[in-house]
Every structure is written in C-alpha cells, then in structure tokens.
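Reagents: none. Just compute today. Phytoene dehydrogenase.
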Amino acid sequence: MSALNLSWHSKSLDSQVALRCGAYPTCSHQTNALAFRGSESMGHSLKFPFGNSSAKTRLRNHIRPPLRVVCVDYPRPDLDNTVNFLEAALLSSSFRSSPRPAKPLNVVIAGAGLAGLSTAKYLADAGHKPILLEARDVLGGKVAAWKDDDGDWYETGLHIFFGAYPNVQNLFGELGINDRLQWKEHSMIFAMPNKPGEFSRFDFPEVLPAPLNGILAILKNNEMLTWPEKVKFAIGLLPAIVGGQAYVEAQDGLSVQEWMRKQGVPDRVTTEVFIAMSKALNFINPDELSMQCILIALNRFLQEKHGSKMAFLDGNPPERLCMPIVDHIQSRGGEVKLNSRIKKIELNDDGTVKSFLLNTGDVIEGDVYVFATPVDTLKLLLPDNWKEIPYFKKLEKLVGVPVINVHIWFDRKLKNTYDHLLFSRSPLLSVYADMSLTCKEYYDPNKSMLELVFAPAEEWISRSDSEIIDATMGELAKLFPDEISADQSKAKIVKYHVVKTPRSVYKTVPDCEPCRPLQRSPIEGFYLAGDYTKQKYLASMEGAVLSGKLCAQAIVQDYEFLVARGQGRLTEATIT
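Predicted 3D structure written out:
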C-alpha cells in the first residue's frame, strides 16, 4: 500500500503519535473502510489521534485499536508547463480550432486500439464523422482486457503511463479523467537476482531539476553498478549528449549490445541494467533491440524532470480509458462498431479504396479510409496491386513481437512487494506488479494478484498455459523466496489467466526505422495510424496516440483535396 492512514476516534484530542507505513489488523467492532485518495502528497507521516488516558494505556500495553485503512497515491506531477506537453496541447487544440468543414468527411477507421481511437477522437474534434470498426467485441487493441466469471479482469499487457507521455497526458486532461491515473513514487525498482527477495532502487529526488535528479538517482545506487562502470557508461553516452537527435537516429543500425561494446561500456552494465530495460521497452533482449530505442527513452527520462515517473490506470483499460474516448466520439456524431472484422479492402479501377468488406458481408463506404490495426494485420489485408509500391513493400521488415501477459491470484497477501512497477531481472520475466496494491479496481486487502510480462516470449508463445505458469512460479520463487515455492508448498494459486499476443508492438530491431511509414500513404484517401508509423515515441501507448493525432492532422490538412476528389468521383459516376 502507498500509505496507511490509521485512526480511531474519541471525544477529545490529547496528543498524536506518528507512525511509519506498515501492515496492521483491524478490530472487529470497527468498520474497515478502504478509500483511495488521489492528488494527495505521501510525504507526510501518518498519525494516530487519541483522546483519553485509557486509549494511551491501551497503546502502551500494545493492545491495537480498531484501524481504518486508506491508500494514498502521489499527486499528479507538474507536467503541464513542459515543452513537450505544450507542443502536444497545441496539436490537440488545432483540431478544435480548425474551420468547421462545410461537408464533414465520413472517415472509416479500422481498429479501435489507442491509435484508432485517437484518430477518431481528433477527427471528431475537427468536425468530421469517424466510423470506427473494431474486429473484436472489446475496445483497446493492445490495451484490451476481459472480465472472467468471478468478475476479475485480466489484461493484454501491464500498462504504465509515464510522465514523458505528453500526448497521452493531454488526452486524459481533454477527457476530464486525470484522476484515473494513480501516480507512484518517482523511483525505478529492480530485483536483485544474486540476492533473492531483495531489491535495488533508483530514487529521483523531487527537489532537483532534470537531468540532475536522474544523475543523482544513478550515482546513489551502488548495488547494481560500480563507480568505474558508471564512469565508463557516462563517457560512452557523451556522443549522444553532444550529438543530440541526429546522433540518436544514426544509432538505429546498432543493437544495444553492439553499441555498448563499441563505446567501451562493460558488458556488466548491459547485464545489470539494460536487459531489464530492453525487455520492458520492447519485450526483447539487448542483442536484438536497436540502440536508438534505448537512447530515445534515456533522453525522455533524463531531460524531463518527471519523465520516468510512473502511473497506473485505476481500473481496466476498456472501461476506464477507452470508453471515455468512445463517449467523446459519439457525442460529436461519430460511430464505433464492435464485431466488425474487415475481410477485404475493395478497390476502384484506379487502385484507390472503394470500400471495406466485412466478414459479415456488410460493405462500409466512406470518403476517407484509415487502417489503425497492427502492422501484421495490415500486411495480411494489403491488396495485391499495392504490395510492390515501395511505401508498402518496406513494411515487410516490420514484424510484431510476441508477448505473454500472466495473471496469478494467490491465496494470501504477499509481503515482499511494493505499490509500484518492479523490474524482475529474470531470464523469463520482464516487469511485474502486485495489482492488488497498485490499482484501485483490483485492490484486495487479503490476497495478491501478480500481473507479469513474460518476455522474450518467442520460444514460449506456442506452449501450454500450464507450462508457462510452472515456469513463472519457478521465477517467482526467486523473487519471493520466503513466500512462494515452485511446488506451491507456500503460497497457493487460486486461479490464473494467460494472455498470449503472437504479434504485439513492432519489433524495434536495427535498421527498421527507415521502414516506418508516414501516416499519409501514396494511395489517395488512404491513411495509416499505429505505433509502427513514423512518430518519435516508437512502440508505446504514447506512440499510438500520437500516430492517431498525426493521421487526423494529415486528413484535416488534405480536406480540400479530399472533398474535390469526392466531388470528381460523383461527377464521373453521374456521367457514366
């Protein structure tokens, strides 16, 4: 828990005793109420008010009074005045302030993940009519989630919202749902494989600006890197600091491992820090991940004071994030249709899009068409006569990476955890969190639910759920040596869910950056959105949202051309 506010009432207040956070039982005659408070600081001590001598006597005799548990999150950081946030806000406002179209465009969008939802939202803001088609019966794409028969949710992935996500943060504000993000302390917490059950922390002091807060966080941590290793890594980073964005982009051709060795950085730095970071960013190891990805993340985290500060959504993404976007779209005349899987992109004689044919046999026509699905889905549905066009042919190198998300409900509350994201540093697992602590909707005072990202998953994606759970429990036994054993002789599994995504975000391997397409395709009236398209935040939720905004921007910019094109087609049809 973030904090415990433990109090009992009496008629008068004599004195107060400050306590640190801890786990305490409640007495049977006191209601045990749980309340999460947003936007409150956790930097204060928690206090027991009591009012008479008998209460003091009970405390002295170690007789615990009834307790009230209140979980308190950290306040939302000051993001609104950062350069990136203001740039994102300006782009958002451009849709609301653009001239109202005399003839709103009907824009048919395939895919109701964050990219498709973002595209539809900002087109609706600009006065157009999006028609959003989702193949499945659930919103969210890579942030989809499902409710089981017990009423518990399980998700496609473990989703973290960073302070360095300016377009996502703007989106929450525009929807009026900033209070749905549960901000955690500004730390990065790593498990210590050589010390089972122990963790090492990078704590970013609030009093310092960037990059000093990040530098101090690294310098203060002496458990993972030695001073000589820190110095060599810092020297290795100097070209990136001096060279800026041009240098960062030029490193796309090198893997993380290759770049580290080229810069003279000890392999132990990669082992201790960047295996975990690579798996968290793209679900692959440093020998595969492009160094550009790491440098972009480090730039965001070190140049923005709150860039690496993390928040969890307060509940399941389809209801707590996606539905507010859908409500916004529909309130402005747009449509969102589930169970609308596209079977074929039908073309006109000139090679432009005529319609989307659905599996149901329905034909959906519009003025403009957008594909906001994963790149692998697009490639499967590409018309044959588009495949040799260089814009589309380059997509062959972009391939989704497999990932597995594991949820395990235990029969007890695990103690060796934090109200935060944790880097497992396990060969099989990436990051994990006890969602019974970190998320309001999933809170449980008596039992833990661990959500874990199983990565790299390529060798495991075809294996059975039971095999994956057995392997996960073996790793958890190292993270919780006193509480979990592989044979369940300690904490026992109540239930589990395994969610496999054979093709998730695009695999950010070296030399794939030139293959990422712009949102405006060479096919008139056809556009793309998705984190694999060209934008500066790579494969992430922020990248998906930004890609949707850029796609909507391209359509708004092309409005006059698109209207004229539509009128020309109408004239041709009339003459025929």
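Residues 53 and 312 are 43 Å apart (CA to CA).
Action item: order primers for follow-up constructs.
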